[in-house]
Amino acid sequence: MTLAINILLWLIVFGLAFIAALRGRALLNDGAREGAWEFIRLLPRITIGVVGSGFIAEAVPKALIAPWLGPESGFLGVIIATLGGALTPGGPVVGFAIGAAALKSGAGAPQVIAYSTAWALYAIHRLVIWEVPLMPPRVVWLRAAASLPLPFIAAALAMALGQP
Amino acid sequence: MTSPAPTLPSDTVPKRRRRRAFDWSTATIAALALSAAATVYWRDGAQHFLAILGGDVTLFGEMLPKVLAGCLIAAFVTLLLPREVVARWVGHESGFSGLLIAAFFGFLLPGGPITIYPVAGAFLAMGADAGAVVAFITCWTLCGYTRALVWELPFFGPHFVIWRIIAALPLPLIAGLLARMALRAGFARENKD
User: Mean pLDDT across the stretch A12-22?
Assistant: First the structure.
């Protein structure tokens, strides 16, 4: 599966690069340079997060995670995970590292999905720092309110699908 | 009748804002990771420590070509798809198709919060309803390929990410419909001038 994804992604990259080249050499160079630099800038953070989450998962006692967030924790686990997601501060490296560490140390997939969905949609610090200054506040609060049930729906769908 | 097109703030087109190589979030995780690694090393020994390190580095290495592809796709889409064009599309659609189109562009547009929220603001200025804007932001957050490829994949691997996105597919439309219902019920009513 991972090879198929790689082939598909790189076909898209070459397709887009080809379209850019048709519009001019400069556009092609700009795109390639921007993309490569972004990759290099992100690399240290993602490395720290991925390797770090492995060790954090190993250091956390599994007996602590399972009853609260394990597959058997059910709807209560989903509620705890959703609250945790809403209260997690920081950028993507924090949210994904915590989610990955929880999954590795025995949290259930629906609970982790609820956590990352809540964190992505309405982590409180992000609403205040990013969204309120850039958007009309009434739309921000409307969006946050409309998002409240979504982590529960995502977790319920994952439970119904039996995946991942 | 066409209204004069409001322009997006200049930092949203077409270049993305430079990211610093290091920040406090990463520093916090690095500190946590170091203490966790030390705990594992003292508690379980060097062999176990190396086994975990090896497993994580291997998984991470396998994901790197996808991360690079994600960065390149995002860079080219940013250059090839002017955000004004997108804003015009979304701003002039309404009804259920308006939600679908907004969600589709939420999937398509790369970038971080600094670029996406001004675009969403421009949708509003061009006449999109708040429901469409909610669907756009929700889809960008939950189904956007940049975030999934660049951030989520190295942490969780393809199996988890694909199923998480499948479970998230209906959510942008649900959020958009809920936002419209809330508006009709009088929540966050717009002040009429």
Answer: 95
Contact A48 B164 (CB under 8 A): no
Q: What is the pLDDT of residues B153-177, one digit of tens each?
A: 999 988 999 999 999 999 999 999 9
Enumerate helices (H) and strands (E) in chain B, giving the number of each. 9, 0
Residues A93 and A156 in one domain: yes
Q: Is the peptide bond before A164 cis (omega within 30 degrees of 0)?
A: yes
Choose the closest CB to B60 out of A23, A50, A113.
Answer: A50
Residues A39 and A71 in one domain: no
Q: What ipTM does this complex have?
A: 0.88
- Provide the domain limits for residue A140: 61-161
Q: What's the pLDDT tens digit per position in A99-153?
A: 999 999 999 999 999 999 999 998 888 888 888 888 888 899 999 999 999 999 9
Spell B40-55 as b/e; 16+ CB within 10 A means b: bbeeeeeeebeebbee
CB contact under 8 A, B37 and A55: yes
Domain boundaries, chain B: 63-184
Low-confidence ranges of chain B (pLDDT < 70): 1-22, 188-193
Residues A104 and A33 in one domain: no
The shortest CB-CB distance from A139 to any of B33, B55, B124 is to B124
Please tell me the total count of domains within chain A: 2
Residues of B in contact with A117 (CB under 8 A): 142, 168, 171
A39 and A91 co-located in one domain: no
Do A124 and A65 share a structural domain? yes
Q: Which residues contact A95 (CB under 8 A, 6 or more apart)?
A: A85, A88, A116, A119, A120, A123
- When scoring A58, A78, A88, A159 by the number of chain B Cβ atoms within 10 A, the one with the most, hence best to mutate, is A58
A75 and A124 share a domain?
yes
